Amino acid sequence: MIRLLIVGDVRLYREGLAQVLQGDGRTAVVGTAARVDELLENGRDLDPQVVLLDMTSSGSLNAVRAITAAMPEVKVVALGVPEVEGDIIPYAEAGVAGYVPREASVDELVSTVTGVARGELPCSPRIAGALLRRVAALAAANGTEPQLRHLTTRELEIAQLIEAGLSNKEIAGRLCIEVATVKNHVHSILKKLQVRRRGEAAALVRGASRGPTPPALATPRRFPATPSAAPGGPPLPSHPAPAVGQS
Fold it and tell me: Of 35, 69, 198, 217, which sits with the fewest C-beta atoms within 10 Å of its C-beta?
C-alpha cells in the first residue's frame, strides 16, 4: 500500500478524508497535519511516499515549495486545485506531481495517488493542455531568439498570447488576472526584448516558435462531469490516522 500523509488546515476535512482513504485498502494514511511546518518537523519519521495537500489552505503554493525542497523523495498531489491555467503552472513549477480536481470522486483520488507513486502524471485534459502550452513556451524560449530567455514564466505566457493576437483584456480574462497587471507585464516584455511595439514582440515569439517540437506528456486521464460515491465501499476504521506531532 502507498504511504500517504494528508495536509489541510480544516481538521474535520483532513480527518474525514483520512478515514475514507484508510478504508479504501490501497493506501495507508500514516498521518495528518494542519500545517506544513508540522509536516516538516515530524513527518519525515512517518516516511510518507505521497503528501496530499489541500490547495484551499492558505499559503499552499509556498507549502509545495517547502515540501519538495525538504523532502525531494516525496510526491505532492494537489487536492482541489482550480483548473485555471494561471494557477496550474505555478504549482507545476513548484513541484506538484499530480492534480485532483474538485469534482473528482474518492476512487479517482486514489487512482491519482497510485499513479503518482508509479511516476506518472495523472491529470484532466484541461490541466494537460495547460502543461503542454507551458512546455511550448519553454521550447520557444530556447529557440532562435535568445532575448526570450530573459522573460519570466508569466511574461512568456503573455508574449505567446500577444503573438496569438489577444488584447490586454482578453489576456487578462484567459489568465484570470487584472488588466493593469497585464499592462505591467507587457511593458516589461517590450523592455526586455528591446522593442517598442507589440507586433515586434510577436514577431520574435513567432520566430522562436519554429524551434523543436515540445515532448509529449503522459496521456491525460478523463474525469466524469459528475462525481459519484463508490457504493458498497469498505467500512471506515474505528481510529483516525495519527496527527503529525501528536502522540
Answer: 69
